[in-house]
Write a structure and sequence with these properties.
The complex is a heterodimer of chains A (about 240) and B (about 700).
Chain A lengths: L2 E2 L5 E2 L1 H6 L10 H4 L23 H12 L10 H11 L6 H11 L3 H10 L12 E6 L2 H5 L2 H11 L13 E6 L11 E3 L2 E4 L3 H13 L6 E2 L16 H7 L1
Parallel strand pairs in A: 3-4, 6-7
Antiparallel strand pairs in A: 1-2, 3-5, 5-6
Chain B lengths: L2 E5 L2 E5 L5 H7 L23 E4 L6 E2 L17 E4 L3 H16 L15 H9 L22 E3 L9 H10 L4 E4 L6 E4 L12 H5 L5 E3 L12 E6 L8 E7 L2 E7 L12 H5 L13 E4 L2 E4 L2 H14 L5 E5 L5 H13 L5 E2 L30 E5 L3 H4 L1 H12 L4 E5 L10 E4 L2 H8 L4 H8 L3 E6 H4 L4 H16 L9 E4 L5 H6 L15 E5 L13 E6 L4 H5 L2 E4 L9 E3 L5 E3 L13 H11 L9 H11 L15 H9 L20 H4 L2 H14 L8
Parallel strand pairs in B: 1-5, 15-16, 15-22, 17-18, 17-20, 18-19, 20-21, 22-23, 23-24
Antiparallel strand pairs in B: 1-2, 3-4, 3-5, 6-9, 7-8, 10-11, 11-12, 13-14, 13-24, 25-26
Helix pairs in contact in B: 7-17, 8-17, 11-14, 12-14, 14-19
């Protein structure tokens, strides 16, 4: 309820109660942005090659992909094309590649730039040769220990996301939900997900990439898909019979 | 089917298909908003326009909710909408608090201060303190060209500017990159925006993120005197507001006029303001021993009067420029008639338009609003994007709705809509006329066909033939179309032209220019001065441009912001400018100079006030009296033009406007226009940017 102050000015509840005492900005700068500094600003890399061209195979594939969409809707092919360009270029998108894709689809450059900077699936600076680790940091994964996975990445790869490891083989970043919440926590490397991780299991996954013998994607605790960990809890007879 | 609603306790019936925010406005309730703009697509991302709809669990963004989408009440009673309930107030305060989390609150050093939507609405919905102790985000400034100054930290991501550039200006250069907290508005690699209408984004910006660079930090809005006026940079007659401080025009902003410019103006209209301060003629000059030397009014007028009187009447003449008002043209024609001369000419470019054939023969008969009904447009030697940028935006608006086919004969240029390229020269025009071109069928089948002839095409040596062919095409296309649709259109580039033709300010004989002993130039600068030979030249005008350099006597006049003068737009709309500031130094109102000259010449004109002059002028040209209205000119003028005929040449059509930014003396005096012109050239040549 509004109430009058001594001066007759009507004060609102918010001015006095809901907000609590005004807090000055006394937090040290380094702590203020909290976990936000993990989600790095997605911008083009300062070092860019002069040009980009699809390989003949990819160009033919792109032509087919564009033809899948009705006339006038070619711009719908922008994400598949950008992704293919990224794959061809060792996992990251260059500025000339954005223009090449835009020209192929008759799109304004800025529209393609918007898309490339929006989605975390597009990398705008070079990534690790052997693996670019995308650690999910959204709520279910975070509750199940994603922060410990980030610590592993910081220690083994680089203290900052989007930086190459010393040997250039690895890089990492934190991303939002990858849709594998039932098997949290998880990381994605290239097109595969590695689930039910602990720091130790993540080390094994990374070791696999380092040695050139990647571990099998999916759950790293051996459970099938997102079935209950430790075996079925209901319909046990059917499960037995199935075996 | 109209829809019944109860808004804030008031029952109201609104039309089908509108949005809730529009319904609220019709009910007289103002809804705060940042991202919503009625001339742009709906984004629904600022959430400031939340209202409460009874039966809906959460507040509703009224801009994105159509009245048709409101679920009906079970008993069929009208939906009850509250815009002032505690829930709405709390919701909007929440939105405002979020918006202010990252807004710098640097109002004291922000140019938007005093006319800022965020500032205004924070007065209504802002809370007293902040709960946010973390650092605010900071965003690098972006280079968007010489007109737009950015303070991107202030941006609230309403995306109005992005939608405007994409939808209205038709130049997809602005975009929002990144996401969430990192979202930023920018162009691709910060290339300057290249559009004739880019500065409108500053008006649209609800905060101070985009401000005008040319008059940055020059004034606070409450210090300025605002005068409503009319633009003369092209022949569209856009509604403008001239803001002055003291004698100086600080800025020019658009006014809303749905029939003409909606609420947009071109960059030239807006940023020519600095040209009103430089290169001004502020005292009379007389050429003595080859040098122009300052003189008094009496001396200058006496000299001109003596020259006019001493020459044979058929050897004196007057040429009106592109920015001349109707009043001074009328007075000058009157004076010359009293001196026995009929040698007056307003067609500096030599356009083969003849007022005797009827008004329809030289107007944009379909009107600018009529473009929205058109379903086929044939452009003949016209580049509306440069010749009338605001009108071009109207064609684009119509084109975006679908069902419009545009054909172009002339130079292949980038318009902001797709067109069918028919050919380069009169040969193609003839093919369309003879029905040999497929576009002839498009025009014939169209319900509302338009033929637009550019000023450049009408000014050619074979202009009469081009005009006749275009008129014939228009007549054929419009034959039997309902509602007396007139599809013949002349797209003038000069603000003074239609009024000049209305007043009959045209010579009766060809080759007038080289045949005179005394020439009176009324602001005529787009003229090959060598044509005037050894004639004695008096120049009356506002800027030291081509005419003044050639002149033997200079009579300093007023610019369009410094006088009340009538201009007739290309569609035949008579509008009057207002005096927003005084002319500099000794310069005078233009009609008054002619009136003073008449006294010196012993032929005193019988009017000594503007109203008296106008009364006399309206008798000669009644069309000028019907202010702000377009009177249909009928079809007779088009028929006469078609009947006049004329041979067709072979040369390809060229543009009437080569450099959009430097088309008249005011623009040529503007440093901003010069910078834009140079930038445009460098982009065209690909010396900067990424397109090369």
């Amino acid at each position: 309820m509004p109430r009058s102050s001594a001066s007759g000015i009507v004060l609102r509840d918010r001015d006095n109660l809901a907000l609590g005492p005004y807090k000055g900005a006394a937090t040290p700068v380094s702590q203020r942005r909290g976990k936000h500094n993990l989600m790095a600003v997605r911008r083009l890399d300062p070092n860019q090659p002069a040009s980009f061209a699809f390989t003949p195979e990819n160009a033919a594939w792109a032509k087919e992909t564009i033809a899948k969409y009705p006339p006038g809707k070619q711009a719908s092919a922008v994400i598949p094309l950008l992704w293919r360009a990224q794959e061809q270029n060792g996992g990251w998108l260059t500025e000339p590649a954005l223009r090449v894709v835009a020209d192929m689809l008759g799109m304004a450059y800025i529209r393609v730039y918007e898309i490339a900077t929006f989605y975390t699936m597009f990398q705008l600076s070079p990534v690790g040769k052997k693996a670019h680790v995308q650690v999910c940091g959204t709520t279910p994964c975070m509750l199940r220990g994603a922060e410990a996975l980030v610590e592993v990445c910081k220690r083994r790869i680089h203290p900052e996301p989007h930086h190459l490891s010393k040997d250039g083989d690895f890089s990492w970043e934190e991303v939002e939900c990858m849709g594998t919440c039932a098997n949290a926590p998880m990381v994605q490397v290239w097109k595969d997900t590695y689930e039910d991780l602990t720091p130790e299991l993540l080390e094994k996954v990374l070791d696999g990439f380092a040695s050139g013998k990647p571990v099998k994607p999916g759950s790293q605790t051996g459970r099938q898909a997102s079935c209950p960990a430790g075996g079925p809890t209901t319909l046990k007879e059917f499960a037995k019979a199935g075996k | 089917m109209p829809k019944q609603l109860i808004i804030d306790g008031k029952p109201i019936e609104v039309e089908d298909g509108i949005t809730l925010i529009q319904a609220c406005e019709q009910a007289g309730v103002e809804i705060p908003r940042f991202c919503y703009h009625e001339r742009l697509s709906i984004a629904g991302n600022c959430r400031m326009c939340l209202v409460e709809v009874a039966g809906m669990p959460k507040p509703v963004a009224s801009c994105a909710m159509g009245v048709n989408d409101l679920p009906p009440n079970k008993d069929g009673s009208p939906k009850v909408i509250s815009t002032r309930s505690p829930m709405v107030k709390k919701a909007r305060e929440g939105v405002m608090e979020f918006l202010l989390i990252n807004h710098p609150l640097d109002c004291p050093i922000c140019d938007q201060g005093g006319e800022c939507d965020l500032q205004d609405q924070a007065m209504a919905y802002g809370v007293g303190g902040s709960r946010y102790a973390e650092n605010k985000r900071a965003v690098d400034e972006k280079y968007l060209g010489p007109l737009i100054k950015t303070f991107m930290t202030r941006c609230i991501q309403c995306t109005r500017c992005v939608r405007y550039m994409t939808e209205v200006a038709g130049v997809e250069e602005l975009g929002a990159i990144g996401r969430g907290e990192d979202m930023e508005i920018t162009t691709y690699l910060e290339r300057g925006m290249m559009s004739e209408m880019s500065a409108n984004v500053v008006d649209l910006c609800p905060v101070g993120a985009l401000t005008h660079r040319p008059w940055a930090f020059a004034a606070r809005p409450w210090e300025l005197r605002k005068t409503e006026s009319i633009d003369v940079m092209d022949a569209v007659g856009s509604a403008i507001r001239v803001d002055t401080r003291g004698r100086e025009v600080v800025r020019i902003l658009p006014r809303n006029n749905d029939a003409v410019n909606e609420e947009w103006i071109s960059d030239k209209t807006r940023h020519v303001a600095d040209g009103l301060r430089t290169q001004r003629l502020d005292r009379p000059y007389i050429r003595k021993n080859g040098r122009l030397e300052p003189a008094g009014w009496d001396e200058a007028l006496s000299l001109v009067a003596a020259k006019l009187k001493s020459a044979r009447p058929e050897r004196i003449g007057a040429i009106a420029g592109d920015l001349a008002g109707a009043e001074e043209m009328f007075a000058l024609k009157d004076l010359l008639a009293r001196l026995g001369s009929k040698n007056v000419e307003c067609r500096q470019d030599g356009a083969k338009l003849d007022p005797k054939l009827g008004r329809a023969g030289y107007l944009f008969n379909s009107t600018i609003e009529g473009i929205e009904q058109a379903d086929a447009i044939l452009l003949i030697g016209a580049n509306p994007r440069l010749e009338a940028a605001v009108l071009n935006a109207r064609i684009r608006k119509r084109w975006r709705q679908g069902g419009l086919t545009v054909g172009l004969i002339g130079e292949k240029v980038a318009l902001t809509y797709a067109y069918e390229y028919l050919g380069a020269g009169p040969q193609t025009l003839k093919e369309v006329l003879d029905g040999k071109q497929s576009f002839a069928g498009v025009l014939r089948d169209a319900k509302r066909p338009m033929v637009i002839v550019g000023a450049g095409a009408a000014a050619r040596a074979d202009g009469a033939g081009v005009l006749a062919a275009a008129a014939k095409i228009a007549l054929l296309a419009c034959e039997g179309k309902e509602g007396g649709w007139n599809g013949f259109n002349i797209l003038h580039t000069a603000a003074s032209r239609a009024a000049g033709l209305d007043l009959g300010f045209v010579a009766e004989r060809e080759g007038l220019f080289g045949d005179l002993d005394v020439v009176y130039l009324l602001g005529a600068d787009e003229l090959d001065m060598t044509k005037l030979g050894k004639a004695f030249v008096a120049y009356q005008g506002s800027h030291g441009d081509a005419g003044a350099h050639r002149a033997d006597v200079i009579l300093p006049g007023a610019a369009y912001t410094e006088k009340s003068a009538t201009y007739v737009s290309t569609e035949g709309r008579a509008q009057v400018t207002s005096k927003a500031a005084f002319a500099p130094g000794d310069a005078k109102d233009d009609w008054a100079i002619v009136r003073a000259l008449s006294a010196h010449a012993g032929q005193t004109l019988p009017y000594d006030s503007l109203p008296a002059l106008r009364a006399a002028m309206y008798k000669v040209a009644p069309a000028l009296a019907r202010l702000d209205a377009v009177e249909p000119a009928g079809i007779k003028g088009v028929e006469a033009l078609a009947a006049r005929g004329g041979a067709l040449g072979t040369e390809a059509f060229g543009p009437a406007v080569r450099d959009f930014y430097l088309t008249n003396p005011v623009a040529r005096a503007s440093a901003v226009m010069a910078e834009l012109s140079a930038l445009k050239k460098s982009y065209d040549q690909g010396t900067t940017g990424t397109h090369g």
